[in-house]
Amino acid sequence: MSQISHDRLLIIDFGSQVTQLIARRLRELNVYCEIHPYQKVTDAFLQEMAPRAIIFSGGPDSVMREGSPRPPQAAYDLGVPILGICYGQQVMMQDLGGKVEAGEHATAEFGRAYVTGAQIESDFVNGWFTDDTGREQVWMSHGDHVSEIAPGFEVLGTSPGAPFAITADRSRRFYAVQFHPEVHHTPNGARLYENFIKLAGFAGDWTMGAYREEAIAKIRAQVGDKQVICGLSGGVDSSVAAVLIHEAIGDQLTCVFVDHGLLRLNEAQDVVTMFRDNYNIPLIHADESDLFLGELDGVSDPETKRKIIGRLFIDVFQKHANEIEGAEFLAQGTLYPDVIESVSFSGGPSVTIKSHHNVGGLPEKMGLKLVEPLRELFKDEVRALGRELGLPESFIGRHPFPGPGLAIRCPGEITREKLEILRKADAVYIDQIRKHGLYDAIWQAFVAILPVRTVGVMGDGRTYDFACALRAVTSVDGMTADYYPFTHEFLGETATRIINEVKGINRVTYDITSKPPGTIEWE
Ligand code: XMP
Q1: What does the pLDDT look like over 328-381, one tens digit per residue?
Q2: pTM for the structure as a whole
Q3: Of 151, 188, 262, 465, which cross-links 405 as Cys (Cβ 3.0–4.6 Å)?
Q4: Is any ligand 1 atom within 6 A of the Cβ of residue 515?
Q5: Which of 467, 451, 460 is nearest to 504 (CA)?
Q6: Which ligand 1 atom lies nearest to the CA of residue 356?
Q7: Side-chain half-sphere of 454: how many Cα atoms within 13 Å?
């Protein structure tokens, strides 16, 4: 649990696919919240966390199944407001004396539905029914439904398949809805959360300015007068973590930037300049490109490439970190989505699609303790913190770049020649995207150089050069993605520029695969 001093809201996760969205909606309202799986929420946990309010998430189970997920009784006894969503509503009703019935065709609802207000004044639905007809669009996704509400509850809204779409026990401040107010298909859903946190008495003071001050105080308290090392990748997360820690402890921080020779055009220089010149942060620039490219020579299997890079990265980082006397802490830009222990009902381990590399394993090996000042934040909050800290916009808004770098954008064997061509083509492509004002609308865009040469004709001569693929996707979190719908004019203009400006490429294709079934990177 975190050391945050703000009022907290506890989200008990029963395994819904969209639990994280509840947290997003609350953070947008400047409320600090944490998601915890229901198994972890014990009486002692509740006492220690002392939330000002609780939300029960949705979930895939049926409350009618023996042993289905439950909150502890203590949650109801805390005397704080509770909001149950979908499965969370059904749990609340059953726990408090109502009834739930199995889904039948007549009552199961999936997709868009309309809730009609019961014309009862309540802080919870205040201003919510915006439609002239007194209805409001919501997103339903339930098989089972509440068939009898618990004593003390009243109905504030109904839908054709859910006669108890919105229920409330105003004296205990318990609220429960059958639909999902956190998804975009419930267009006015944020208003319900706003009403809920208002009636729970939240100050709405979870701002980046406040976060920055608290984070700095916590880092100072944790680190004392010891030394911290931080692996920099040039990406947003590690950059923001480094600048924040530097603000807290100054020269007690040393950053190590491992240049594996798989960076984009001018990237190493840009990162080093920003940290040395703008921030005066002690920085070791470890140019290890010969080592990495040497070990990757002749390797074409994607997983082998990733494993080699991961192993070398740790070795090199450790080598340089050992030179920093008295280092006791390792700083990492771990984000909140990485630390949420979500509830898995699928059992068994999931398949490894790709081995992602990080500096995992190092802290134990080197006897280091972790400093992770971004653990409570989502990606866009990290960007907001970066702005608060004055990082240049060009850094904050950067597309994500994978740890293994250009190695996984170069299917087949990696050669210096191919990397050189790839860097130039990528720079032209990104320049095009920026010129057309599209950079911020795209989650990630890059060029992959293909392991194939094709025949072309330029001027009067024959060419036999590499083909490349352009990739651009939109995404919220990188887990799923859609290809970006460029216009034909844009694609044509970009292909022409790449072929004209980059020697070694004579054919350009556009990758129109979404994720799934594809992945964002090519390897
Ligand atoms: P995929 O290709 O798996 O990528 O759809 C999803 C997101 O993760 C990034 N990615 C990585 N990031 N180390 C990283 O730090 C890695 O090994 C790695 N592999 C993929 C990818 O760029 C995309 O944003």
Answers
A1: 999 999 888 777 665 654 434 445 566 655 555 677 777 889 999 998 888 888
A2: 0.78
A3: 262
A4: yes
A5: 467
A6: 17
A7: 15
